[in-house]
Amino acid sequence: MPQPYTEVQVTPGAEPDLGALTDLYNHYVRETAITFDTAVFTPEQRRPWLRSHPEDGPHRLLVARDVRSGRILGYATSSPFRAKAAYATSVEVSVYCAPDAGGLGIGTLLYKALFEALEGEDVHRAYAGIARPNEASDRLHTRFGFHHVGTYREVGRKFGRYWDVAWYEKELGTAD
Length: 176
Fold this sequence. Notes:
The protein is of the alpha+beta class. Helix content is 26%, strand content 33%. It is built from 4 helices and 7 strands. Strand 2 and strand 3 (72-80) form a beta hairpin.
């Protein structure tokens, strides 16, 4: 049964979080098709990812932490959607919760903080790719106003099988 957390704080991800963030992500690499990475990472390999998400701007990394223990319960990111310049006002978002923190509202808390942080940024659309099946992620994204825009069929192979990825889109405000 998931453990309740009485007080959770959301802050920008920082260098001291790197080990815990890497461990959390590696769980999904090893155990699920939620990410299409197939080899686990060391913290040193993940450092460029962490550094690509500064405390301000359109590309953020927010961490949810149990205030009492300091334990990281999850994180959310907004990252470049594509490398070409015309995509600069679009971001790809994702959220990962610790395996024992699912269903406790951590993902909702993280996305709420992420979208609030993006309100003053020059971003027009957010996109999320969700490997199928993932009902919890479908519900979370729908709750935040995302709409299904299409599905890539059998686009990734992991654990000896092919997986579909559903793509969701959300309109965001743009800075004045």
